[in-house]
Amino acid sequence: MWAVAEMRIRLNGKDYETQAESLHGLCRELGLEREERVVILDGYQSDEDLPLHSGAIAAVTTKGELPPEECLEELLCARHTPGVYEKVKKARVAVAGLGGLGSSIALSLARTGVGTLHLVDFDVVEPSNLNRQQYRISHLGLAKAEALKQEIAEVNPFVRVEAETLRVTEENAPALFKKDPIVCEAFDNPETKAMFVNTLLTQCPEKTLVAASGMAGYGSGNRIKTRRIMENFYLCGDGETAAKAGCGLMAPRVAICAGHQANTILRLILGCKTV
To answer: What residues does 183 pair with on adjacent strands?
Structure first.
C-alpha cells in the first residue's frame, strides 16, 4: 500500500502533521464528533468539509470547554483574517476618555488583540454611565481606567493595559502620550475635545489622531462617517449632532461612532490610510 503523505498545518497554535485532506478528516483524526466541536479554518468557522492545505491555520475545540492555557491566545484570534493578529499584537494605541466612545473603542481593540492599550480618564463609573458605556453595576465607584482594565483582562488577558486616572490638559498631553504613535480622542466634553485635538495637532504632529464629533441622539446611523481631515487626522461622526437638553447620548449611535474609530485604528495599524 502507498503511504499517505503528511501535511504540515498550524493547529491550535502549534505545528501539526496530519494525514487528513479536509476538515472532517482532521476532526476524525482528533477523535471529535461533529455535534461537540467548533472548527475554524483560516479565520472562517464552518461545519463544511473544507479542503486543508499546507500552512493552513486551524482551530479545533470542544464546545463549552475551556481550552488549555498554552493555546488560548491562538484561539482568541482564530476568527481573525490570517496575518492580522501578528501585526496588531505589535501595536500601541492610546485612548483618551473612557466614556461611551472610549470604553467601546478600547474593548474592540482588545478583542482585536492590540498589544498595548494606554487608557486615560480622570472619572469614576456612575449609574448614568451604564446606558452607553461598557461598564457593569459591579464597577460603580471605581476609576474608569481601572474598571476597564479589569474588563479587558476578562476579554483578552494577553493585552497589556496601562491605565492612568488623571485629567488630560493642554500642559500634560504632549508628555502623557509621548510613547503612543496612534491616539484616539474619545471625550464627552466639547471643550476638552477641541483642546485635545488642537494640542496634539500643533505640538505632536508626528502622531496619528482619530477623533469623533457628532453621535448624539437616535438619528440615522448612516449619517455617521469617517473622514480624513489631514495627513494624520481622522474624524468620525456626523459632525453636527451634539448632546444637549432634549438630545441625549444613546448606546446604539455612540457604538456606531466608536466602531468607526476602532476600525479606523485597525486599518491604520495594518497600513491602510484611506477611508
So the answer is: 94, 209
Q: Looking at the DSSP assignment, which residues form a beta bridge with residue 235?
A: 211, 227
The set of cell numbers assigned to 133 is: 458605556
Give the three cell numbers for residue 64: 463549552
DSSP of 209-223, one letter per residue? EEEE----TTS-GGG
Of the candidates 51, 62, 65, the one whose C-alpha atom is nearest the C-alpha of residue 18 is 51
* Consecutive H or E run containing 102: helix 100-112
Instruction: Say if residues 97 and 181 touch (Cβ distance below 8 Å).
Output: no
Q: pTM for this structure?
A: 0.92
Per-residue pLDDT in tens (0 to 9) along the chain, 275 residues = 455 568 999 999 899 999 999 999 999 999 888 778 899 999 999 989 999 999 999 998 888 888 888 789 988 999 999 889 999 999 999 999 999 999 999 999 999 999 999 999 999 999 999 999 999 999 999 999 999 999 999 999 999 999 999 999 999 999 999 999 999 999 999 999 999 999 999 999 999 999 999 999 999 999 999 999 999 999 999 999 988 889 999 999 999 999 999 999 999 999 999 98
| Cα–Cα distance measured from residue 130 to residue 100, given in angstroms and rounded to the nearest whole number | 9
Report the C-alpha gap between 251 and 218 in whole angstroms.
9
Q: Which fold has domain 84-269?
A: Rossmann fold (3.40.50)
The CATH class, in words, for 7-76 is: alpha beta
Rounded Cα–Cα distance for residues 275 and 268 (Å): 10
Q: Where are the domains of the chain?
A: 7-76, 84-269
Candidates 221, 85, 207, 106; CA nearest to 163 is 106
